[in-house]
Write a structure and sequence with these properties.
Strand order of the largest sheet: 1-16-3-12-13
CATH architecture of one domain: Sandwich
Number of strands: 20
Number of helices: 9
Distance between the termini: 54 Å
Oligomer: single chain
CATH topology of one domain: Immunoglobulin-like
CATH class of one domain: Mainly Beta
Length: 473
C-alpha cells in the first residue's frame, strides 16, 4: 500500500483519520452481511436439529412397521427361584408344566491333606475327560492331556497353577485349614459326559500308593489317590410329562425361543407361560408418539411469532418449515386401510390443539387387547400411500425428507449456498475497501504534497515582499 512516511505533515490535515473514516464507510455493508451470515448459519443448525428429530421419528415408525416392533414376548414362571425362563423375540406363545427331579453337577475331587507348602512329588499327570459308569470310565473324544511335574514345582500351589494353565477341562484350587492343605479339582462343565480321570507316573516308581505324586491320582478303583466329593450328573426334568435330560442346568435348545434356567429341584409342578409382551408394544407406540411430539413442538417454537415479546422464531416465515409442520399434522389425521382401527384416534392417540399427540390410556388398553388390529393399523400395506399403515406411511415420509433431494436436504443445501455467496460478497467488500484505502491515501498524499509546495511558495513570496519593502524604505 503506497503511503508517505507521515501523511498530513505538509498540510497539517489529519489524513490518517480522514482515510480511516472513508474506508470504514466502504466496509459498512459488512455489518449487514455478517448479520445475514449469522442468521443463515443459525438456520442451518436449526435444520440440522430438525433432521435429527425427523430421523428419530422415522426410526420409531420403522420399528412399528416391521415385525420386530410386535414380536416381543415375555416368559413367566410360577416358581422363578426354581425354574427361570427367558423368551426371545418371536418365540411362540405357549403354556407348559415343568418339574425338576435333579440338577446337573460337575465332578469334584479332593486330595488328602499335606503340610502347607510341602513338596508332593514329581513325575507326570494325565487328565482324561469322559463318563463314569460305576467303576468303569469311558474316555471322551478329546485328547488326554499330560502334564509334567518337576522337582521344585511340586507343591500343591504350583501343581494347581500348572493344571489351570493347561486348560484341560478341569480347574484346580488349594484349600487350607488346620490340618494342612488339599488340592481340590472340579470339571469345568456339568453333566455325566464331563467327568474326569487322573493317572500319574510317579517319579518314585510306584504309581498308585499313598505317597508322592500318586496321592493326586483319581480313579474309582484307586483308594490311595484323591477322593470324589461329588459325582458328575445330568439335570433330569419333565416338560408336560415328557422326561428330558441335560448336561447343563441352562436349557437353551430344548424349546424354540426359550432359555430355561434350572436352579432347584421342585416339589410341585411349575407353570411356564409365554405370551406377547404387551408392555413392549405400548413402549414402542409411546416412543413413536414422543418422537412426533418432539418434532412438532420444535417446529411450533421455531415458526411462531411471540406478540408479547415481539420476537420471531428462528424459522418464522420459513415456508419449508411451515409446510413440514402442516404435512405432519395432516398425516396424523389421515386414515389407513386397516380394520377394526383405521385412525390413530381409534386406539387413543389423539391430536390436540397445537398439533400435539396425546395417548388416552383407556382406549390404548382396549386396543392392546386386540393386538392383531393394533398391529395392522401400523403395518398394513395397501400399495396406496394415503392408506398405508402409519408405520410405513411415516417412515416413507421421513425417508423422503432426509433423502438427497428431500425437503430438509434441499433446504439445508440452499442455505449453505446462501452462506457461501455471503462469504464471497464479504470478500468483495473487503477487497473494495482495501483498494479504496490505497486510492484515498494516494489522493491525500498528492494533496498533502501540493499543499506543502504551495506553503513553501507562499513563505518565499512573503519573504521577498518583506525584502522589497525594506529596500524601498
Amino acid at each position: 500500500m503506497a503511503t508517505i512516511s507521515a501523511p498530513g505533515i505538509g498540510s497539517g490535515i489529519d489524513v490518517q483519520s480522514i482515510v480511516k473514516q472513508l474506508v470504514a464507510l466502504e466496509r459498512a455493508p459488512l455489518t449487514q452481511l455478517k448479520s445475514q451470515a449469522a442468521s443463515l448459519q443459525s438456520k442451518v443448525s436449526t435444520y440440522g436439529t430438525i433432521q435429527s428429530q425427523v430421523s428419530a421419528l422415522g426410526e420409531a415408525a420403522a420399528k412399528l412397521s416391521s415385525s420386530s416392533g410386535w414380536n416381543a414376548v415375555v416368559g413367566t414362571s410360577s416358581n422363578p427361584s426354581s425354574v427361570g425362563v427367558t423368551a426371545a423375540a418371536g418365540a411362540p406363545a405357549t403354556s407348559l408344566t415343568m418339574e425338576v427331579q435333579q440338577l446337573a453337577r460337575a465332578q469334584s475331587t479332593a486330595s488328602v491333606a499335606v503340610a502347607t507348602g510341602s513338596a508332593v512329588g514329581s513325575g507326570s499327570m494325565t487328565i482324561e475327560l469322559g463318563r463314569w459308569s460305576g467303576t468303569g470310565f469311558t474316555a471322551g473324544s478329546g485328547t488326554p492331556l499330560s502334564l509334567t511335574i518337576n522337582p521344585g514345582e511340586d507343591t500343591l500351589t504350583a501343581i494347581a497353577a500348572t493344571i489351570n494353565r493347561a486348560d484341560a477341562g478341569v480347574s484346580a484350587t488349594v484349600l487350607r485349614d488346620a490340618s494342612g492343605e488339599r488340592l481340590l479339582m472340579r470339571s469345568k462343565d456339568t453333566g455325566v459326559e464331563n467327568g474326569f480321570r487322573i493317572s500319574v507316573a510317579d517319579a518314585d516308581g510306584t504309581h498308585s500308593d499313598a505317597s508322592g505324586l500318586s496321592r493326586l491320582a483319581f480313579s474309582a478303583t484307586n483308594a490311595n489317590g484323591m477322593t470324589q466329593t461329588q459325582a458328575s450328573q445330568n439335570a433330569l426334568a419333565t416338560i408336560n410329562g415328557v422326561a428330558i435330560a441335560s448336561a447343563s442346568n441352562r436349557l437353551s435348545d430344548t424349546l424354540p425361543g426359550l432359555t430355561i434356567q434350572l436352579s432347584q429341584v421342585t416339589t410341585a409342578p411349575v407353570e411356564i407361560d409365554v405370551s406377547a409382551d404387551v408392555e413392549a408394544v405400548r413402549a414402542n407406540v409411546k416412543a413413536f408418539v414422543d418422537a412426533y411430539n418432539t418434532l412438532n413442538g420444535n417446529l411450533a417454537h421455531l415458526t411462531r411469532y411471540d406478540a408479547g415479546s415481539k420476537t420471531a422464531g428462528a424459522l418464522q416465515g420459513d415456508a419449508s418449515a411451515t409446510g413440514l409442520q402442516n404435512a405432519l399434522r395432516g398425516m396424523m389425521r389421515s386414515v389407513t386401510g386397516s380394520t377394526p382401527f383405521s385412525r390413530l384416534a381409534d386406539v387413543g392417540i389423539e391430536l390436540q390443539t397445537g398439533g400435539t399427540l396425546s395417548i388416552k390410556s383407556e382406549k390404548m388398553d382396549a386396543a392392546l387387547s386386540n393386538l392383531r388390529g393394533l398391529k395392522e393399523l401400523f403395518t398394513i400395506q395397501t400399495g396406496v400411500t394415503t392408506t398405508e399403515g402409519f408405520g410405513h406411511k411415516v417412515k416413507t415420509f421421513a425417508d423422503g425428507l432426509l433423502g438427497t433431494d428431500g425437503l430438509i436436504s434441499s433446504r439445508t443445501a440452499a442455505l449453505q449456498a446462501s452462506i457461501n455467496r455471503n462469504g464471497i460478497e464479504q470478500e468483495r467488500v473487503n477487497d473494495r475497501a482495501a483498494r479504496a484505502e490505497v486510492r484515498y491515501l494516494a489522493q491525500y498524499n498528492a494533496m498533502d504534497t501540493n499543499v506543502a509546495r504551495l506553503n513553501s511558495l507562499s513563505a518565499f513570496v512573503t519573504q521577498q515582499i518583506s525584502l522589497w519593502n525594506k529596500s524601498s524604505a
